[in-house]
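Revision sheet: structure tokens.
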Amino acid sequence: MTRKRLMAGNWKMNKTIGEAVVLAQEICNQYEEKWDDACDVVVCPPFVDLKPAKTVFEFDRVPIGVGAQNVHWEESGAFTGEISVPMLKEIGCEWCIIGHSERRGYFGETNEEVNKKAKALIAGQIKPIICVGESLAVRDEGTTLDFVTAQVIAAFAGIDAAQAVKCVVAYEPIWAIGTGRTATPEQAQEVCAAIRATLAELFGQATADEMRVLYGGSMNPGNVDLLIAQPDIDGGLIGGAALKKESFVQLIEACLK
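Predicted:
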């Protein structure tokens, strides 16, 4: 089955509002209509940059989506420092990253919280990008597939096939995020295939074949072609390479080949 590719740029805690507007405009200036036919393009800036970036894309009438990097599962309440789905919805967010390894590692985010966030996003009609991935210790133990598939199963608990198909799964080996190390195409494909097989067990093969699985460990213009050539890799969740117009555009254009 042919799935439309997706390139999502995770800006992490980078770019002031002014810098975000400049980068969004630079990406707009490179936009070509053929992008939209072959690849969904999304940028995920910090919360303060979401509306400015969205405004740039709307003003230029460019179909580039905006996504958040995190969300709380409650609609409102005494949750200091958190952002809710309705808040993101009003900004115009269409996507949201949840379960990133940095959220899990630095802030103690659990599988159960990722599941609650996924359900809240689906209910609010925002598409979740659900991150999974193993540490170097897990990789060295040889238990990568068990670990990652357990994360997938936990993330989708209580979600049905009609809801799951709206989600994206991003495989991010923790040992390859921001390190310059990248899983080989074969390693990445092995795990992404296991993710899809798990989705098939949960929701049926037809739904699994429709869902997109991304790779997110230091994808860059030098390795993108080999990675997205793999049958179960449908694009990338991009960190460092998304912070510069030249490299992000190169990754998008790799999807057009």
